[in-house]
Every structure is written in structure tokens, then in C-alpha cells.
Design brief:
The complex is a heterodimer. By secondary structure, chain A is an alpha+beta fold. Chain A has helices spanning 2-15, 21-53, 81-110, 115-120, 220-228, 253-260, and strands at residues 122-129, 132-136, 142-143, 146-149, 153-160, 165-169, 174-178, 184-189, 194-200, 212-218. In chain A, the strands form 2 sheets. A 5-stranded mixed beta sheet of chain A has the order 3-2-1-5-8. In chain A, strands 4-10-9-6-7 form a 5-stranded mixed beta sheet, covered by helices on one side. In chain A, a hairpin with a 4-residue loop joins strand 6 and strand 7 (174-178). Classes of the chains: A alpha+beta, B mainly alpha.
């Protein structure tokens, strides 16, 4: 008996998406898209069918003619309560089960790391400022590009020097608010070396549209080399090593922006 | 559709037999109680009639729809290619921000309240709103707040921090232009308009329903408006607090939201979203109500599960105040709080499922006529379903993390909000014949719907596909360009569809077919039982549902037999005692008034004051002059309106159903509603203080006044003054003029003493270098107690006015004004009882 329960828990446990934030997002997103589309088609299809079936010029128009509303009547209950509640209960079950299912993942995403993981984790401070991102590494050096090793858990501790920003790397599914006077945290694991793009996701002033940062995911060895040489280069220019890795980058949304990065706004102060 | 040829005999002749033939009712337009005729320009400045005000609201809201719509087209043109086309960064941010503000505030709610003004009194059997002049005041405050917003564009650019106005971008160090201040003050003025309107509608709907029309039997549109104004009363009070604090940061130099303070940024988010989430339902509910009415009429069915539909809405209205933090999942709030707000968010989505199914099942066994109003209502339901489904995505916190700040959010809330607009566009076609007396052109209506529906989905659906575009950014990945171009094309189609509507309405107004009282069939609500447009006093007799359906009893007009006739019809009302006496006293001597210029005057004054305040920090003579002139005009017009109260008569009792306020007179109830919103205002101020102090470190906080003794003295002074007000009321009841004058004088002197004592305290602090902008401690202290002092000053102005009138012998036969002032004054005292320990001792 007890074993069954444990087995059941384990099975439920298996259903909860885990892994990198890209995996987590992808698996949940597509389930939602599939179910959402299905529900949308059924509900809107049914209402359209029903409206067409009972059109005033159709065969069924006289079906309810014994009991039409009249001017000045007081409202009465109206029937079909059972059908209404059945549909309602069904929709409630769908919605609640979906949310409960994703809640497991939320717990996973937000769970504190174990001591061992914490040792292996790379922690980087991110500071938003109008209109650039500064990344401060454990060695105290800072850069205006985010360089991280592939396949390692990276923890970002994010704050702002001036107004409310939001730091997000869409391709790596990492995002969190950058709030002046407070810090927030997020994490990600990048699997594919390559160049990505970080954006600001909260309107922060005139240069908001151009408040981007380059994110370079490097092979661990290349990263070590870059990290060691950080102090030597002026901050913000230490990216030569990564260019060779571009071939393996998956063309996600982040890459497209590079082409348009030179739009009017970028003139503002990307290097301040 | 050949619905026009369907036979009419199913109408249920037994009901209409009770009703007068609609459409041929001859109304004596010769004497409209001092109200100039429709053609006169003057009428529209002085009218207080709910139907006129409703039309003013609708027309003005449509103007702001065009205003906000043109801004939306600018945004869409800018997004034609990554990196933008025609706007600079600053201009784009202004366009995005003002588009949001204009559509949410100056278009959506006022558009709905145009219909609410016109239809709600008709549906519940009232001759007008409870306070007709306050209704006109709401409108003029709304109009002038919009004018103020328009002016902000020409004062160095308007506000450019998004409609959510996140801190600290909204403070002068980051946004120094005067126009930004003006935009915030415009919103503040709009909030005042909403508060006045909420008080008015709450009093009207609760107190002035026809006999037999209990809350449960109320039409669904009126139900949605009732719930909307309840939410507005509290939500907008929170917004008012946020805006007063923000204005103070910008004009007086307080430092609530400045970046250096730990709590400021998140404080704004809490205050704004505490208002902001109920606001979603505030703008959506009226549309839902209109959709419910339209569904019932054009399907020829009563709504399925009516009481559950209403229960679901009540649940949503209550719960709407418990979900605001789901807008803040990525701030530093912790996991248990996230879980809680995830649960409440899902909880609030479920009642909507029920409402959607109820509407869908209403079509079954219907005799559905696809006229323009139904097409829009039906389309609105489909769009709302899509908005709802995509909203569930956002309820899953893990997905919300990624959708935050992207076009998924933009697309989702446009499906919901503009889905609501779709329902309201249905409403304008539905009530157009009622409001104008003319039919619109059905073919053009259907063309409008076709263009609208295709255009709508072309604009917003591609946004789901290009959802990874960051919000409020015009630089996006090139792969999304086709979707954005499609959206831009859709935006122009959507915009053009409204040109068809305007053309249709304009032509129909001049040469449309004349509309009967009920142009639709299968309608049930009372607005269709009177001619189109209805006469000034709405009904040919006193509407009553006591007989089981709507009847007009023949006791209309100033006949003393009114009460007797009502008794003759065998009705007994719980408030008969008080209200019937009122009716006997007032009903005989005069009819309702419908004209007053003072609401317009007060709004002009408010406009001048706020415009002046916007530039006051610059010290320019122009702005100082405007402020002073505005205050002068404000005092003059307020006194003018107060004096007019003796000759201006709003609807008087007896009313039918007034549950649960049968024993409270209208003005008193209005005062209670106003004070309830004031409680939230001060609650938000106190909450802001506690929040900032906790973020700062509770014990590290420095209490600003060095000595609690002056504050303690002031506590006693205020308590004594409350006692004096009670004495004033007793004196008035006893008919003692001298007692009344002396008691009011004592109240005045104690109030002045309170202010004097406070002035000394502030003067000393100022000379020690402790002033508004010194620190966050002084900011909260001066602003919160200053807000209270402002309440005291307002009270003293009223006392002065009452003193003058009492000297002339007023209030002796009717002490109610003294009593109502007393309510206000006691409230101000009670607030001080909270402020004193919080700011002087703890």
C-alpha cells in the first residue's frame, strides 16, 4: 500500500518538467499551446455552431417560441443549470490541473541549490543603468558583455543603479526585474555555445529600445581563458575568443536582433 | 436576415397591455424646467439630465478613442521595421504611454459610463441619478482632465514612462518635463471625476429602484455597473493616493519614489497594481453587462443560470482586490506569496468560465437575429475566450516569467480589453436608436463589424506569433518583421472600420428611419418601454414592478395624491415613514431641476488650478497666476453651487426598493460612500508609510516631531471640536439659532487652533532644516499629516459657509446639512487618532 503511494508520487514526479530553463519552458509551453488551441476551437466552434443552428431564419428558430421574453417582465432563473455547471466544472478541472502541474516546476525552478551545486555555480552580479547592463564577476572585474561557460549553472544577482529595469535573455529563458535598492535572482544553464542577446523588458526611459547586451556562451576552456584575462583588457572588450563558436549556435530569437542592433537608439550610451 | 418579416404576435401581449403605446407619446417640450432646447449650445453646458450627460460622455469618449487610436497607428507605423521609422525614442515612449493612458482611462470607462448614465436610471425606474449636478460635475471634470492631458504634449512632452508609470522613472530626476507632471495631474483630476461618479451611481442604484425591482431582479447591465462602481470607489481611491504622492514628489519635492530609498520602487508597484488589477474588471464589466443584454435580446432567450452569473460577478468583484501581485512575480516577492497570488489568480479566472458558458448556452433554442449589436457582442465573446485562454498561460508562474514584458502580454490584454471594447461597440449600436430616436443603417453596421473583426485579429493575433518581441520596444528580431507588418495593416483596417461607424451614425442621425420605443423585440428592460428618445422625465407614470411586471402607475407629476395612489395599488414600503414625508413635502411644490452651470464652472477652476500646479516648481508667473485664479474661481463656483442647492431639486422620494439602505437618505448615503473611499485613501497613505518604514528598518526610522505634546494637544482640540459639532446639531434640532451659531463658531475656532498649533510645529521643523524633501521620514510625515490638514481646511471652509447661513437663520427647520457635515468632521477626527500615534509616538 505504502509502496503504491510512493510509486504514484514518483510517477507524478516524473511528469514535472525539469532541466534547463529552456527545457522547462518548451515542454510546458507546447502543452499549453496544444490544449489552449484545442479548447479554443471546441468552445468557439460550439458557440458558432449553436448560433447558426438557432438562427432566426433556420429550421430550429421556433424551438423555444412558447417561452420568449417580453417587455417589462421580471427576470427569472432560466434553466440548464446542470449543463452550465458541468461545463464549468470541466473547465475548472482543466485549468486547475494545468496550474498545479506547472506549480511543481515552479518549485523546482525556485528551489534553493544544494551545497555542492552552489560550489559549482557561477554567480554574476548584473547592474542595470540607463541604458546598459554591467556584469560584475566574482573576481571583481566587470564587463558590458555577459560571458558564461556552457553547461554550467549561472546565477544572476540583479539590481539597478537608477530606475526599474528588467533583465532578460530570451533564448536562455532567464528573466528578472532589476529594482533600485533591491536585488532579485535568476539562474540559467546554457547548453549551446554561441552569441545571444539580452534585453531590457521594462520601459526605463528614452534609450529603452536599445538597452541590449551581448551574451556570449563559451566552451568551458575558452571561458576560463577569457576569465583569466579579464583584468588585462579594458572592461567590455574581452570577447575575441568567442567568435569561433558561432557555428554551433542555434538560431533562436536572440540571434536575429544582432542585425538591427545599430538602430538609432544604440547611439545613446551603450558603453557608459 | 429577414428578421423584420417575422411575426410579432409572440411578443406576449399581456405585458404590453399595461404599458402605454410607445413611440407616440407626445411630450411637452415647451417647458423643460429651465433647460434650453436640444439645439441650443447653452443646453449642453448647463444640463444635468442623465440622458444628456450620457450623450456627452459617449461623444467625448469617442473623441478620445480617435486620439488614442491615432497614437496606436503611430506606434504601428514605427514598428513597420526593426529600429523604427518615424518616431524618435522619446516620441515613441510618449506615444506608447499616452496611448495606454488615453484608452484605459479617457476612452474605455467613460464610454461605458455614457451608456450607464443613459440607461441605468431608465432600467431601474429612476427619473435621474441621485445627484444630477454631481453627475454633470463628473462629466466636466472628465472632459477637462482630458484637455489637461492634451496640453501636456505641448509642455516639453507628455509622460513617457508607460501607462503603469513605474517608479522611480516617474520622478523629476528621470523625467523633468512639465508635461509629465501635467499628465499625472490630469489623471488625478480624472480620478476625482470617477470618485464623484461612483458615489452618485452607488446611491442611485442602491436607493432609487422601482417598487418590486429588488437587487436580484435588476437587469444585468445595471448589475455590472453596480459592481463596477463598487470596485471603482475603492480601487480609484488607491490610485488617488498613488497619484497624490507622485504629484507631491514632482511638485513639492517629497522623496517617496526616489531611487535612493529602498522601498519606493516596489511601493509604487503595489499601489498601482492594487488599483490596476480591479481596473481590468472595471473596464470589462460594463461590456459584459451590455453583452448579456444584447445576447438576451437577439437570441430571444433569458440568460442561462442568471443568479449564478450574478454570483460569479460578485465573486470576481471581491476577489479583484486580492490578485494584484501577479503583476509582480519577478520582483523580489517570495515563493509563498507567489503561490498565494497564483492561486487567487486562477480562482478569479474560474467565474469567468461560468459567465462565458452561460452566454453560450443562452443561444440554445434561440431565435437568433444577426443584427449588428449581436454580431459585435458575439464577436466580443469569441475574442474574450481567446484572451482568457492566453491568460491561463500567464497564470502559470513559470510561463509568466518568460512572458513578462513581451508581446504575449500585449496581445493577451488587448484581446481582453479591446474584446471589451467590442462589446461596447455592440452596445452603441444597441442603444443608438434609443438615444437618438433613429435607426442606424444595418448594412453599414455589418460592414463595420466585418472590417472590425478582421482588423482586430490581424492586429493582435500576430502579436502572439511574434511574442518574443520585448514590449514598448521598437527594435525587434528581424524574423518577426512580417508579423509586425501584418499587425500594422490590421491596425489601419481596424481604424478605418470606425470611419464607417461614424459615417453611419452621422447620416442616420439626419435621415435614419425613426425608431420605435422598442425597435428590437424580445427586450425586457424598462428603457424600451418608453419612447425613443425618452422624454425628459423618462416615464409616463410611476414605474412599478409590484404587479409582477412593469407598470406605470398614474401618479406622475406634482399632485398631492401621489402617496394615496401608491397606497391604492397596495404597496407597502419599509422606508415609507421617512421618504413618504419627504415626498409629501417636496413633491408638491416643485419638479426636478435639470440645469446648472456650476459643475462646468468648478471643473474650469479645477483645470486652472492643476495646470498652474504643473509648472509651479518653475516659479513662472503664468503658472502662479493660473493657480491663484483657479483657486479663486473654485471658491466662487463652489459657493455658487452650494447656494443653488436651495433651489435645485434632484429626484426626491418616495423611492421603491432601497435595500439595504432604506433608512438612509440619499445625501447621507452619498456622504457615507464618499467617506468610504476616503478611508481607502488614508489607508493607502498609512500603508505606504508602513511599507516604506519597514523597508527602511522600523527602529532605525527617525520620528520627525521631537515632541509628541503638540500632537497630543491637537488630538484633544479635534475631539473637542467633534463635540462642538454634535452640539451644533442638537441646537439646530431644537431650533436655537444662537446655539447653532455659537457651536459652529466654537468648531471653527478649534479647527483654526488645530491648524495654528500644527503651523507652529511645522515652522519650527522648517527652521531646523527639516522639510518635505529632507528625508523619507520627513516626506511621509509632512505629506500624510498635510493631507489630513487639507481635510481640516476643507472642513473649516464649509463651517464658514454654514456659519454665514446659520446667522441668516438656516438649518433650523432642516438640520441635515449640519448632520452630514458632522459625519465628515468626525471622520477627519478619527483619521487623526490613527495618524497621531503612527507619526508622533511609535
Amino acid at each position: 500500500m505504502n509502496g503504491d503511494v510512493i510509486q504514484l508520487v514518483v510517477q507524478v514526479d516524473d511528469l514535472i518538467p525539469r532541466g534547463t530553463r529552456m527545457n522547462v519552458f518548451e515542454s510546458i509551453y507546447w502543452v499549453f499551446i496544444a490544449l489552449g488551441t484545442l479548447v479554443g476551437i471546441i468552445v468557439i466552434g460550439y458557440m458558432t455552431y449553436s448560433a447558426y443552428r438557432y438562427r432566426s431564419t433556420g429550421d430550429h428558430a421556433a424551438d423555444g417560441d412558447d417561452d420568449r421574453p417580453y417587455l417589462g417582465e421580471l427576470p427569472t432563473g432560466g434553466g440548464k443549470g446542470r449543463k452550465l455547471f458541468l461545463s464549468f466544472a470541466l473547465s475548472a478541472v482543466v485549468v486547475i490541473s494545468l496550474i498545479v502541474w506547472t506549480y511543481g516546476t515552479l518549485l523546482y525552478v525556485e528551489s534553493p541549490v544544494s551545497a555542492q551545486e552552489a560550489d559549482e555555480e557561477l554567480e554574476i552580479q548584473v547592474v542595470g543603468q540607463q541604458f546598459a547592463w554591467e556584469f560584475i564577476y566574482p573576481n571583481g572585474e566587470s564587463s558590458f558583455e555577459l560571458h558564461v561557460p556552457a553547461d554550467q549553472r549561472v546565477r544572476l544577482v540583479v539590481t539597478s543603479d537608477d530606475v526599474f529595469h528588467n533583465f532578460g535573455i530570451p533564448a536562455l529563458r532567464a528573466k528578472t526585474d532589476a529594482i533600485p535598492g533591491q536585488t532579485t535572482e535568476t539562474w540559467f544553464i546554457a547548453e549551446q555555445p554561441g552569441e545571444y542577446q539580452a534585453h531590457c523588458y521594462e520601459l526605463c526611459g528614452a534609450g529603452h529600445s536599445g538597452m541590449n547586451a551581448k551574451v556570449v556562451v563559451m566552451e568551458p576552456s575558452a571561458y576560463e581563458e577569457w576569465y583569466a584575462s579579464m583584468g588585462e583588457n579594458a572592461s567590455g572588450n574581452g570577447s575575441g575568443d568567442a567568435s569561433g563558436e558561432n557555428a554551433t549556435a542555434t538560431p533562436t530569437a536572440g540571434n536575429g536582433t544582432n542585425a538591427s542592433g545599430t538602430a538609432s537608439t544604440n547611439a545613446s550610451e551603450n558603453t557608459s | 436576415m429577414s428578421d423584420d418579416t417575422t411575426p410579432r404576435e409572440t411578443d406576449g401581449g399581456h405585458a404590453t397591455a399595461d404599458l402605454p403605446a410607445t413611440g407616440d407619446h407626445v411630450h411637452e417640450s415647451s417647458h423643460e424646467h429651465g433647460l434650453p432646447p436640444m439645439e441650443s449650445i447653452r443646453r449642453w453646458f448647463v444640463t444635468t439630465n442623465h440622458k444628456d450627460v450620457g450623450i456627452l460622455y459617449v461623444v467625448t469618449a469617442l473623441f478620445f478613442l480617435v486620439f488614442g487610436g491615432v497614437l496606436a497607428l503611430l506606434i504601428r507605423v514605427q514598428l513597420l521595421e526593426p529600429g523604427g521609422t518615424i518616431l524618435t525614442d522619446a516620441a515613441y515612449n510618449q506615444a506608447v504611454s499616452s496611448h495606454g493612458l488615453l484608452m484605459v482611462f479617457w476612452f474605455l470607462s467613460p464610454f461605458a459610463f455614457g451608456f450607464a448614465n443613459y440607461v441605468v436610471p431608465l432600467q431601474i425606474g429612476a427619473k435621474d441619478l441621485a445627484f444630477p449636478r454631481l453627475n454633470a460635475l463628473s462629466y466636466w471634470l472628465y472632459l477637462f482632465s482630458g484637455v489637461l492631458f492634451g496640453i501636456s504634449f505641448f509642455q516639453g512632452g507628455t509622460f513617457s514612462g508607460g501607462w503603469t508609470m513605474y517608479a522611480p522613472l516617474n520622478v523629476p530626476i528621470y523625467m523633468p518635463n512639465i508635461g509629465a507632471t501635467t499628465a499625472i495631474l490630469a489623471l488625478l483630476m480624472f480620478t476625482a471625476s470617477v470618485t464623484v461618479g461612483s458615489v452618485n451611481f452607488l446611491t442611485t442604484i442602491h436607493r432609487m429602484r422601482a417598487p418590486g425591482l429588488t437587487l436580484r431582479r435588476m437587469p444585468l447591465f445595471t448589475w455590472t455597473i453596480l459592481l463596477t462602481v463598487w470596485m471603482m470607489l475603492f480601487a480609484f481611491a488607491a490610485l488617488l493616493a498613488a497619484l497624490i504622492i507622485l504629484s507631491s514628489d514632482r511638485i513639492l519635492g517629497t522623496v517617496y519614489f526616489a531611487a535612493t530609498d529602498a522601498g519606493g520602487s516596489v511601493l509604487w508597484a503595489h499601489l498601482f497594481w492594487f488599483f490596476g488589477h480591479p481596473e481590468v474588471y472595471i473596464v470589462f464589466f460594463p461590456a459584459l453587462g451590455a453583452m448579456a443584454e444584447i445576447f438576451q435580446t437577439f437570441t430571444g432567450r433569458r440568460i442561462v443560470g442568471r443568479k449564478w452569473f450574478i454570483a460569479a460577478m460578485v465573486l470576481v468583484a471581491l476577489q479583484s482586490f486580492l490578485v494584484w501581485m501577479h503583476h509582480m512575480f519577478l520582483t523580489s516577492i517570495n515563493l509563498p506569496v507567489k503561490t498565494l497570488f497564483m492561486a487567487t489568480t486562477i480562482g478569479i479566472s474560474l467565474p469567468f468560465d461560468l459567465m462565458v458558458f452561460a452566454l453560450i448556452y443562452t443561444t440554445i433554442k434561440g431565435r437568433i437575429r444577426f443584427k449588428t449589436p449581436f454580431l459585435f457582442a458575439f464577436g466580443a465573446l469569441a475574442l474574450f475566450i481567446l484572451g482568457g485562454i492566453t491568460g491561463v498561460f500567464l497564470g502559470a508562474v513559470v510561463l509568466d516569467f518568460e512572458f513578462r514584458g513581451t508581446y504575449w502580454v500585449v496581445a493577451h490584454f488587448h484581446y481582453v480589453m479591446v474584446g471589451g471594447v467590442t462589446g461596447l461597440v455592440g452596445a452603441i449600436y444597441y442603444w443608438y436608436p434609443k438615444m437618438t430616436g433613429r435607426m442606424y443603417d444595418e448594412f453599414l453596421g455589418k460592414v463595420h463589424f466585418g472590417m472590425y473583426f478582421v482588423g482586430f485579429n490581424l492586429v493582435y493575433f500576430p502579436m502572439f506569433l511574434a511574442w518574443e518581441t520585448p514590449r514598448r520596444v521598437f527594435d525587434y528580431p528581424a524574423v518577426f518583421q512580417p508579423w509586425h507588418q501584418l499587425a500594422t495593416a490590421g491596425a489601419f483596417l481596424l481604424g478605418a472600420s470606425f470611419l464607417v461607424m461614424f459615417y453611419n451614425f452621422y447620416v442616420s442621425l439626419v435621415s435614419g428611419e425613426e425608431a420605435a420605443g422598442d425597435p428590437w423585440r424580445y427586450v425586457t428592460t424598462a428603457e424600451w418601454a418608453v419612447p425613443s428618445p425618452p422624454p425628459l422625465e423618462n416615464y409616463p407614470g410611476r414605474p412599478s414592478y409590484d404587479g409582477g411586471s412593469l407598470q406605470f402607475l398614474e401618479d406622475m407629476g406634482p399632485r398631492p395624491s401621489g402617496i394615496a395612489a401608491a397606497d391604492g395599488s397596495g404597496e407597502t414600503r419599509s422606508d415609507g415613514g421617512v421618504a413618504a414625508v419627504d415626498g409629501a413635502l417636496t413633491g408638491e411644490s416643485h419638479e426636478e431641476s435639470h440645469a446648472s452651470i456650476w459643475p462646468f464652472g468648478i471643473s474650469v477652476a479645477g483645470f486652472l488650478v492643476l495646470l498652474g500646479l504643473s509648472g509651479l516648481p518653475s516659479g513662472a508667473t503664468l503658472y502662479v497666476t493660473l493657480t491663484v485664479a483657479g483657486f479663486g474661481l473654485g471658491l466662487y463656483t463652489l459657493v455658487g453651487m452650494a447656494r443653488e442647492s436651495q433651489t435645485f431639486h434632484g429626484p426626491s422620494g418616495p423611492f421603491g426598493e432601497s435595500w439595504p439602505f432604506a433608512r438612509v437618505e440619499n445625501t447621507k448615503l452619498g456622504m457615507w460612500f464618499f467617506l468610504a473611499s476616503d478611508v481607502v485613501l488614508f489607508g493607502a497613505f498609512i500603508g505606504a508609510y508602513v511599507f516604506i518604514r519597514v523597508a527602511f528598518g522600523w527602529s532605525a526610522w527617525e520620528i520627525v516631531p521631537h515632541d509628541p505634546i503638540p500632537g497630543l494637544m491637537n488630538t484633544y482640540i479635534l475631539l473637542t471640536s467633534s463635540f462642538a459639532v454634535v452640539l451644533a446639531m442638537v441646537a439646530a434640532q431644537k431650533g436655537s439659532r444662537n446655539g447653532l451659531v455659537v457651536s459652529l463658531l466654537v468648531t471653527l475656532l478649534l479647527g483654526v487652533g488645530f491648524l495654528g498649533n500644527k503651523g507652529i510645529e511645522w515652522y519650527e521643523l522648517y527652521h531646523e532644516g527639516q522639510w518635505l524633501s529632507t528625508s523619507v521620514e520627513t516626506s511621509t510625515y509632512f505629506l500624510t499629516t498635510g493631507l489630513h490638514a487639507a481635510h481640516v481646511i476643507v472642513g473649516l471652509v464649509i463651517v464658514c459657509y454654514m456659519l454665514v447661513r446659520a446667522w441668516g437663520g438656516a438649518y433650523l427647520d432642516d438640520d441635515r446639512p449640519v448632520e452630514y457635515f458632522g459625519l465628515y468632521w468626525h471622520f477627519v477626527d478619527i483619521v487623526w487618532l490613527f495618524l497621531f500615534p503612527l507619526f508622533y509616538i511609535l
